[in-house]
Amino acid sequence: MTPYQWNQGCFGWHLLADPKLSVIEEEVAPGAGEVLHIHHQAQQFFYVLSGVVTIITASQDFHLKQGQGVAITPETPHQLKNNGTEVLRFLVISSPPTKNDRENICAGSN
Hints:
Keywords: Metal-binding
Pfam family, one: Cupin_2
Protein name: Cupin domain-containing protein
GO molecular function: metal ion binding
Helix content: under 10%
Strand order of the largest sheet: 1-2-3-10-5-8
CATH topology: Jelly Rolls
Order of helices and strands: EEEEEEEEEEE
Number of strands: 11
Distance between the termini: 22 Å
Radius of gyration: 13 Å
Strand content: over 45%
Shape: globular
CATH superfamily: Jelly Rolls
CATH class: Mainly Beta
């Protein structure tokens, strides 16, 4: 599988790309992450394989480590950051897939 880069220090590998379901393994370098954004249709589940992650929403910040996960419902603004000292690896499962279903709330590339 060939990885794709989605932001500085951030890479992904499509494990399943189906019209109704997407499973991606992602890697985020320490200090890297994404801008606050929203998906109008997709529900997502983030599951940490290694490292630690902070997922920020309007109502709660989730601090997750290996073996933990969180579901993000459609229309929920969220942002993922690796504030740890090691590379973060996680699965993101989206239904339906997030292609063409992302709106950045803050300025930035991703």
